[in-house]
Amino acid sequence: MEIRKATSNDIKELASLMEQLGYQTSIEQMRVRFNNIEATTNHYTLVAIYKEKIVGMVGFHTGVLYNKDGIYARVIAFVVDSKFRNKGIGRRLLTEAESIAINSGADGIGLNSGNRTERDNAHQFYKNMGYEAKSIGFVKALI
């Protein structure tokens, strides 16, 4: 298995993985999103290659904290293809994201995960990786 930085050649596979996360995404939409993400210096996209196929991705960014001195990291997209789960791929992706975050000066990392029954396995995975449930998220559409 290989973990590497995503490139524009990976857009089709990234769009497919977003679909698995439940976000309808065309290849063209993913192309625009990826180009915007790549143009932002504190955003990172990693892909997992297993048997010469992209089977997972993690997208995250770093930023400056308001509530204390320091840098934080936040995972904003994380998925392993459903046919390739339970092979250590997610662990490798998240561990590599954490390593990059540390090297970027972050002293903590967070993520949000839907509060739905189908997310129970993901929640257990995060706990096994050392994450703890700490808050409730709220969203509001502005457009």
What does this structure look like?
This protein is of the alpha+beta class and 143 residues long. Helices cover 32% and strands 28% of the residues. It has four helices and five strands, in the order βααβββαβα. The chain has a five-stranded mixed sheet. Helix 3 links the parallel strand 4 and strand 5. Helix 1 (11-20) crosses helix 2. The longest helix has 15 residues, at 89-103. The protein is globular and about 40 Å long. It starts with a strand and ends in a 15-residue tail after the last helix. The model has no long low-confidence stretch (mean pLDDT 94).
List keywords for this structure.
single chain; 143 residues; alpha+beta; 4 helices; 5 strands; 32% helix; globular
Rg of Cα set: 15 Å
| Total E-strand runs | 5
Largest sheet data:
5 strands, mixed
- Give helix % range: 25-40%
Strand order of the largest sheet: 1-2-3-4-5
Structural class: alpha+beta
Series of secondary-structure elements, N-terminal to C-terminal: EHHEEEHEH
